[in-house]
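Hi F.,

I've been meaning to write this up properly since the lab meeting, where we talked about keeping a consistent format for the predictions we share between groups. The idea is simple: the sequence comes first, exactly as it goes in, then the structure tokens exactly as they come out, then a line or two of notes. No screenshots and no reformatting. I'm using this chain as the first example so we have something concrete to point to.
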Amino acid sequence: MHVELLSTSLREGSASRRALELMARALDELGVTTRINDLRELPMALCDGRELDEYPPAYGALHARLVEADGVVIGFPVHLYSSSGPAKNLVDIVGGALEGRLVALVSAAGSLRSHLAVRDLMGALVMECEAFVHPATAQVTAEDVETAEVRERLHELARGFVRAASALRVLREPAEVAA
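Output, unedited:
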């Protein structure tokens, strides 16, 4: 199984990036191959409705990796009780690759009271990208991201995500036609 992870924070040392690295480690321990894609390594591009091939080639390459993945984990900061603009912008550009893919969300906010901030992004993923969004999420704060409690929450999310992605992969495989 292969999972692509998207780090969408533009801030060096962000809590969402650290949480995504812990999530990758948890998935690795379950035998999953992972790759973290960092938005900071892509050329800056704002979604303006053009076709994917009109964006810098790095976006097409990312899109291709997402299409091949069994699942995707998006890590993002919460700004003003919603997913960050850069996270939404990236989904607007490459979100077509998420069709039929399982997507999990890992967010970082100033407080755990922002736990419902994932709703808007979940809605966009389901309604616009036709992705399957894993119902469990993990949210961290800068203060608790390195704690044993957060590591356990991320391991629990990873275990559930792998089970769901495995089941969904079976459904995506072409069915044999009865003769």
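Notes:
The first helix runs from residue 15 to 29.
The CA atoms of residues 42 and 58 lie 6 Å apart.

If this format works for you, I'll send the rest the same way.

G.
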